[in-house]
Design brief:
nine-stranded mixed sheet, 31% helix, alpha/beta, 7 helices
Length: 223
């Protein structure tokens, strides 16, 4: 597997915000979101190093924390992910996988953090991304088989109708599992969207989640 970076930090998003975790960032992605803040882990990335699942497990154990977050890029691209999660789970660690929900794999996972991409992610004149980002059948399978959080990136209020349409296509989704997160790469940008998005979440009984890693550290790698 190509690993772009492996570091220890606090989880900045979702229900485990603030939890000290080992982050494994895999290289490669099948999407090309226009607001992507990890382009160094994109489809054609050559950064990082190629490691076996066993080597990755050894490095994770050296960090000595109980929570592990596997992110990307898109970690589900890698067939070795199944072996990696089995190895990590043998140390009795809590595993979160962050995915766009376009690929299914039979992995060990305590929290599947699914972030389906909306039209606000579409780059101009990129039909491949637009076609690849829509896989509600995969999202439905992940929701059925794993403990999950369903996290949508919201840029403007016009995104909210699209989110509601998307949710209606998914059977048996609990409103308390749905999280709305503002899009932004600066604290000022994120905080400017917080008030109206929080209000909407309260109305719909969703959970508002902020990108706390940006507020804590800025838009930096390895944080």
């Amino acid at each position: 597997m190509r690993i772009i970076e492996l570091f220890c930090s606090k989880q900045g998003e979702g229900i485990l915000t603030g939890t000290l975790s080992a982050f494994i960032r895999t290289g490669g992605c099948n999407l090309c979101c226009q607001f992507c803040d990890t382009r160094y882990a994109a489809a054609d990335c050559e950064e990082g190093e190629v490691l076996t699942p066993e080597q990755i497990v050894t490095r994770v154990e050296e960090i000595q924390v109980d929570h592990v977050v596997i992110t990307g890029g898109e970690p589900m691209l890698w067939s070795e992910l199944e072996s990696l999660t089995s190895g990590i789970k043998s140390s009795n660690k809590h595993i979160t996988i962050e995915t766009a929900g376009t690929i299914y794999r039979d992995v060990k996972c305590d929290l599947m953090s699914i972030s389906p991409k909306l039209s606000n992610s579409d780059p101009v004149n990129n039909e491949t991304h637009k076609n690849n980002r829509r896989h509600p059948e995969v999202v439905s399978l992940l929701i059925e088989r794993y403990n999950y959080q369903l996290k949508f990136v919201v840029d403007t209020p016009t995104d909210l109708e699209e989110i509601e349409t998307y949710i209606k296509k998914l059977p048996n989704v609990s409103s308390n599992k749905i999280q709305l997160m503002p899009q932004g790469t600066t604290a000022q940008e994120l905080e400017s969207k917080e008030e109206w998005l929080k209000e909407y979440c309260e109305k719909r009984k969703y959970t508002f989640t902020q990108r706390m890693q940006i507020i804590w550290y800025g838009n930096k790698r390895g944080c």
